[in-house]
Specification:
- The chain is an alpha+beta fold.
- It folds into 3 domains: 132 residues, TATA-Binding Protein; 155 residues, no CATH class; 181 residues, Transferase(Phosphotransferase), domain 1, CATH 1.10.510.
- It has 20 helices and 26 strands.
- The strands form 6 sheets. It has an 8-stranded antiparallel sheet, sandwiched between helices.
- A hairpin with a 5-residue loop joins strand 3 and strand 4.
- The two termini are 39 Å apart.
């Protein structure tokens, strides 16, 4: 077999291995463990013969229909039941022998077992296959892509695998695959935006005047961009065609400085700009089509203004914690050319753009910041990125890893908790929204971003405090205290810190236990300084943790805002229920 063919097989195998791990971990957490249909240390006499050589433990999942089962070797599992697998999966149907299977058959098997509840979701199967194909091609195209030396950019474009607890982490639907790949961050792409010359009467902005930034990128003062994926969609809209015919708009095509797509795919970065540019795309990434609803842009800009005193208080009390604000949003208004509300909304959203403050050159040089999602993951060869960083500090690994983790967790949690409990602000500090800065290799700064996803606890923020916001924007911001705590607990503890622990600890169960205990210690210390909070005391006492149901959300075709949670037994304490000693 030729070397290229061997490489192609390796890319496919790696992409399928990752997809199988995502699907089985999601199914395990959201269905099998809560229903008592999983054994993380199965010793059944009828185990697949192909697992005999693997050694170690075996996961067996059973189903409501008798006779069906899934087995797979486990390399290790966490206190939250998150697994790293050591073999392909084996499937069994009534009356049949075990069969070793690939990703396609595994996903079909699980979807069939779930069909009595939700019907067979062929759309989700197709999205999974799309995710595998995208991952395969990203692996192939990123192999020789050079690093830039800009730590933030290299991390933004280094999230090869994406969300570990999502069934379709690399699915990108809505456009031809070659077009999607050419502007994907994982291949370390540089992309010019698609520009239009516009009559200034079309321009609409909120917040800070950012037209100088657009001129810097395009080289002229009368130009406005969209994401290159959006251009043909927008050009097909009759109001834009009418504006072109009237001479108010001239399509210019791709030009100006090339920008770097970041981990969110549609947000663009350039080290010389004051802002990240968050553009609109009609492409489904994980749960959502990533278009910019104008009310969401309005609320993000309003929060930058409204919450300025909050951030001053939080950053004063938690040195090293900060928020990347979003002081401006822009779009184009074509109402002079049409009264078709749907077409005008399409154009408003397609041209909608949010401006997020970039980190200063001094901060980027001093702290060498990285996105948390690029740290708490594995590289293309399956090695932990953060573990390699800690090992580079020298000294005994376990105490160094614990100190490293505590430095990170303290800044992340204390700032997030203060914003929530004192000020009623619900941040969304998941892995992709958290940027970590370092001092001599130790976490020293944390920035949380994405005000579009930030919410306000309603009893802290009654309507009178939100004057000037449209009714739709106000409605998008309000959260109950309980809903806000679930969002924070999931993002900070389950999505973020649990993954940090998983990738820092390896199979060291004692170290994993100490890291979870250090989170309880942070909650005790926070209450000693700021006053008792039932939610934090519940964390100390071992209350369940909420885990967002990404698989359920896609299975039942729900909007992401309607995602529900699975209650995970607490990992804090002497013995988590799913821990099995090696």
């Amino acid at each position: 077999m030729s070397p290229p063919a061997i490489r192609d097989q390796w890319y496919q195998a790696q992409a399928e291995r990752q997809a199988i791990a995502c699907w089985i971990n999601c199914y395990l957490r959201e269905f099998a463990l809560p229903r008592g249909q999983a054994d993380l240390d199965d010793r059944g006499h009828d185990a697949p013969g192909g697992l005999a050589h693997v050694g170690g433990r075996m996961l067996r999942m059973t189903f409501a229909e008798p006779g069906y089962a899934l087995c797979i070797g486990i390399a290790r599992s966490s206190r939250l039941g998150r697994c790293e697998f050591a073999s392909p999966p084996y499937l069994k149907a009534p009356g049949d022998a075990w069969r070793c299977t690939d990703a396609d058959a595994t996903v079909r098997f699980l979807l069939e077992r779930l069909a009595p509840e939700c019907g067979f979701n062929g759309e989700l199967h197709a999205q999974t296959m799309n995710s595998i194909e995208v991952a395969r091609q990203l692996l192939a195209r990123s192999l020789d892509a050079p690093l830039t030396g800009d730590a933030l950019l290299d991390a933004e474009q280094g999230m090869l695998w994406g969300h570990a607890m999502h069934p379709t982490p690399k699915s990108r639907e809505g456009l031809p695959l070659p077009l999607v790949l050419d502007a994907s961050p994982e291949i370390r792409a540089r992309v010019p935006l698609f520009w239009f010359r516009i009559d200034p009467r079309l321009f609409r902005g909120q917040g800070r005047d950012v037209r100088a930034t657009l001129a810097t990128v395009s080289g002229a003062t009368d130009r406005y961009p969209c994401h290159p994926w959006e251009a043909q969609r927008l050009l097909a809209q009759p109001p834009l065609q009418a504006a072109i015919a009237a001479g108010w708009v001239e399509p210019l095509g791709p030009l100006g400085d090339a920008l770097y797509p970041t981990s969110s795919v549609r947000t663009m970065y350039h080290p010389a700009l004051d802002y990240f540019l968050k553009l609109s795309i009609h492409v489904r990434l994980t749960n959502c089509v990533r278009k910019n609803a104008w009310y969401e842009l309005e609320s993000a800009v309003a929060l930058t203004r409204l919450l300025e005193p909050v951030w001053r208080d939080v950053t004063r009390q938690v040195p090293g914690f900060d928020v990347m604000v979003e002081p401006a949003a822009t779009t184009l208004d074509f109402s002079a050319f049409s009264d078709d509300a749907d077409a005008l909304r399409e154009l408003n959203e397609g041209f909608g753009m949010l401006y997020r403050e970039n980190l200063s050159p001094l901060h980027r040089k001093r702290y060498r910041p990285q996105v948390a999602g690029a740290l708490f993951t594995t590289d293309r060869d399956g090695h932990s990125v953060c573990r390699r960083m800690v090992e580079g500090l020298g000294g005994p690994y376990a105490p160094m890893a614990l100190a490293w983790f505590q430095a990170y967790a303290a800044r992340l949690l204390e700032g997030t908790w203060l914003a929530f409990f004192r000020h009623g602000v619900v941040l969304e500090p998941h892995l992709q929204n958290t940027v970590v800065g370092f001092d001599r290799g130790m976490p020293a700064r944390v920035w949380v971003r994405d005000l579009e996803g930030t919410k306000l606890v309603e009893h802290h923020w009654p309507a009178r405090r939100l004057d000037g916001l449209s009714e739709r924007a106000r409605a998008s911001l309000g959260y109950s205290a309980d809903r806000g705590w679930k969002r924070i607990a999931y993002c900070a503890l389950v999505n973020n810190l649990a993954e940090a622990i998983f990738h820092l600890c390896g199979d060291d169960l004692a170290l994993e236990h100490r890291m979870w205990q250090s989170i309880a210690d942070l909650a005790r210390g926070w209450q000693a300084r700021h006053g008792r909070q039932p939610a934090l005391q519940g964390l100390v006492d071992g209350d369940a943790l909420p885990s967002k149901n990404n698989l359920r959300t896609r299975l039942f075709r729900r909007a992401d805002r309607d995602a529900d949670y699975t209650a995970l037994p607490s990992p804090i304490g002497t013995q988590a229920p799913w821990v099995v000693a090696a």
